[in-house]
Amino acid sequence: MSFRAHLLEETDGKVAGGLVELEESRLPEGEVTVAVEWSTLNYKDGMVLKGIGRLVRSYPHVPGVDFAGTVEASSDPRYKAGDKVVLTGWRVGEWHWGGYAEKARVKADWLVPLPAGLTTRQAMAIGTAGFTAMLAVLDLERHGLAPGEERPVLVTGAAGGVGSVAVAILATLGYRVAASTGRAETHGYLRDLGAAEIVERAELAEAPSRPLDKERWAACVDAVGGTTLAHVLSQMGYGRSIAAVGLAGGNRLETTVLPFLLRGVKLLGIDSVLRPYADRVAAWQRLVADLPLDRLEAMTSEAGLGELPALADAILAGQIQGRKVIDVRRYGAARFFSRLGHRPEAAQALASADGRSDRRTGGGGDAAARAGLGPGGAPGASAARAPGGAAVPPGRRARRRGRAGRRSAAPDHQPRHPAGRQRPVRPRHDRPGAPLDRA
Ligand SMILES: NC(=O)c1ccc[n+]([C@@H]2O[C@H](COP(=O)([O-])OP(=O)(O)OC[C@H]3O[C@@H](n4cnc5c(N)ncnc54)[C@H](OP(=O)(O)O)[C@@H]3O)[C@@H](O)[C@H]2O)c1
């Protein structure tokens, strides 16, 4: 059985991807095979799709840091065929093959059952971004945030994925939400999600003029980091907390210890990736209770796998509003195929055969087969041979071998990971001089 996926390749240090058809035998090891229905676009997906930050260990790689779908097969007693499941985190889509595919195979430990009351599409409308927003609110509550606050709760990067869900949850819980955004066109959208006031991004983006400013906020969910976080720290109310979630505005933090020492301000680090199972289930239950589905729908739009390259640029440029769910059974425009630059004549045949590639319409898939390509017209890399058998050009193979050899000095006969060749690059935070040292 084959399935379709967005596959990333690295060539001469550049990462590019496209749709391919893969045999199920290419799936990595794991106890549970899932028919993926929906994935989503997160900031980290943008980084992976563009090859930024060395988040991926080895290529070819299937990105997509989250997914929801139906179990097809499981060797773990906790799951059986037909169960609906959700996955976020665990470096899926980074170190492990991810959700931008019709099938995924993962460890049972990484899954949670689809929460009752949500469809797989709604679960992914929440996705990693919304799940993280909920973790942030839960941590703020654990540190004293409670209804009845006089001051507003600030959300930075409010019109993005984490921000939109945070605004909607906090407003539903009865807090007065101040939404900070750099996009004037999102003001109405944010008010519809429940924001009581709008704060211009520029107002918070400057480094603070003094370590302690007027106390302004009861709490903050910060998706931006950098000087914005330093600025907000100087404005926190006595004993109040900031949930540091993101770095859309930068990962450096230049501040003083005075907000901590003189105001008892708390800076709470939020990690969604390695959260234990019990935390995950609790967060999903709270999402069902505290995130109204009409507000979730209002912040959600859909895209297909073929739109991912453009979406990656958009999310890294801060241009995505709310949440973008990815329908992995929809492929988008055929013009994407020719961007890969391989077999352009076949891609042309594909484009002129139909002009679209939605499998449910019977569009480009057949045309792709006729053209001797995978449905994406992608190169028939050995790990991703198209049905017609299109092969990677010999020169390209040689370049790849050269690079792999330089990186790993691995002899060619060394066993390979089933998902592709090994590239033993240590994750960024695990290298000397990196921002994070070993725990
Ligand atoms: N800790 C975790 O486990 C975890 C999990 C998920 C996400 N994150 C992080 O959280 C952040 C948000 O993720 P997301 O998926 O919500 O991304 P997103 O949809 O792109 O939202 C980010 C928002 O930040 C604002 N922004 C963008 N560039 C900016 C800049 N240069 N200066 C100031 N504000 C800027 C924009 O909001 P406005 O247009 O409204 O200003 C943008 O919509 C990312 O850094 C992501 O890596 C962390």
Automatic annotation (TrEMBL):
<dbReference type="InterPro" id="IPR013154">
    <property type="entry name" value="ADH-like_N"/>
</dbReference>
<dbReference type="InterPro" id="IPR011032">
    <property type="entry name" value="GroES-like_sf"/>
</dbReference>
<dbReference type="GO" id="GO:0043957">
    <property type="term" value="F:acryloyl-CoA reductase (NADPH) activity"/>
</dbReference>
<feature type="compositionally biased region" description="Low complexity">
    <location>
        <begin position="380"/>
        <end position="395"/>
    </location>
</feature>
<dbReference type="InterPro" id="IPR020843">
    <property type="entry name" value="ER"/>
</dbReference>
<dbReference type="Pfam" id="PF08240">
    <property type="entry name" value="ADH_N"/>
</dbReference>
<dbReference type="Pfam" id="PF00107">
    <property type="entry name" value="ADH_zinc_N"/>
</dbReference>
<feature type="compositionally biased region" description="Basic residues">
    <location>
        <begin position="396"/>
        <end position="406"/>
    </location>
</feature>
<dbReference type="InterPro" id="IPR013149">
    <property type="entry name" value="ADH-like_C"/>
</dbReference>
<protein>
    <submittedName>
        <fullName>Acrylyl-CoA reductase (NADPH)</fullName>
    </submittedName>
</protein>
<dbReference type="InterPro" id="IPR036291">
    <property type="entry name" value="NAD(P)-bd_dom_sf"/>
</dbReference>
<feature type="compositionally biased region" description="Basic residues">
    <location>
        <begin position="416"/>
        <end position="429"/>
    </location>
</feature>
<dbReference type="InterPro" id="IPR014188">
    <property type="entry name" value="Acrylyl-CoA_reductase_AcuI"/>
</dbReference>
<dbReference type="InterPro" id="IPR051397">
    <property type="entry name" value="Zn-ADH-like_protein"/>
</dbReference>
<feature type="region of interest" description="Disordered">
    <location>
        <begin position="348"/>
        <end position="439"/>
    </location>
</feature>
<feature type="domain" description="Enoyl reductase (ER)">
    <location>
        <begin position="18"/>
        <end position="326"/>
    </location>
</feature>
